[in-house]
Design goal:
The chain has 206 residues and is α+β, with helices and mostly antiparallel strands. It has helices at 2-15, 24-42, 50-61, 67-75, 78-81, 84-103, 175-203, and strands at 113-116, 121-124, 133-142, 149-158, 161-169, 173-174. It has one domain: Roll (Nuclear Transport Factor 2, Chain: A), CATH 3.10.450. The longest helix has 29 residues, at 175-203. It is globular and about 45 Å long.
Length: 206
């Protein structure tokens, strides 16, 4: 799990920068160009400016993730029974949690290599995205030590940008599904308000 957290941290920085594409091919080209850009940002960390470097990476990343969709998928059926106020709070706290958990790990992979592959896969988003197309961008993340990891980033086009709504590794670990497994027992026992309270507690929110 710790390894997957580290990989997710890097992928959040790498894939989510300026995903303004018109086609899957252009998406791949842009991701490839921007991967080097993000890694250059991370390499600026020197122990004294780590917080500033992480913040710079976060500022690039967060506009290109659909945190509302990710939260809805992670919460599952209880999302449909939640009030608008509860939904807004869930999205806010889920976003805080992802940044808190993964951004702090990002610098560990500042010397990694990312190979974005040409074989992006486009598929029908169906009821999930109301007919919009899902584009899966594939990449190999090579840390300085350890084995390479195959990653798949699930994105969809929103206006003139592509937004990320899930990340998977080695065909096994999936970010949203992992969060859903963690949320389910809390939702079953305490409901939506209980999950909100749990997230706020972990995030240090009031």
């Amino acid at each position: 799990m710790k390894k997957m957290q580290l990989m997710t941290a890097l992928s959040i920085g790498v894939l989510s920068i300026n995903l303004a594409f018109a086609t899957p091919k252009q998406a791949v080209e842009q991701v490839r160009d921007n991967a080097g850009q993000v890694l250059n940002i991370l390499k600026q960390a020197n122990g004294r400016n780590d917080a500033a470097v992480r913040k710079q990476a976060e500022d690039y990343a967060t506009p290109y993730f659909d945190f509302a969709l990710m939260t809805r998928l992670a919460v599952g059926a209880p999302w449909n029974r939640a009030s608008e106020a509860q939904k807004q709070t869930l999205v806010q706290e889920f976003r805080k949690m992802l940044i808190r958990v993964y951004a702090s790990q990002m610098l560990r992979y500042k010397n990694a290599q990312v190979q974005v592959k040409d074989n992006a896969v486009a598929k029908d988003g169906g009821s999930l995205l109301r007919g919009k197309q899902i584009v899966e961008v594939r990449a190999t993340i090579k840390p300085t030590s350890g084995q390479p990891v195959e990653a798949v980033f699930s994105t969809y086009k929103d206006g003139n940008i592509y937004r990320v709504f899930n990340v998977s590794f080695e065909g096994v670990f999936k970010l949203v599904e992992s969060q859903r497994q963690q949320f389910k027992p809390i939702l079953d026992a305490k409901g939506v308000d209980g999950l909100i309270a749990e997230l706020k507690s972990k995030n240090g929110s009031r």
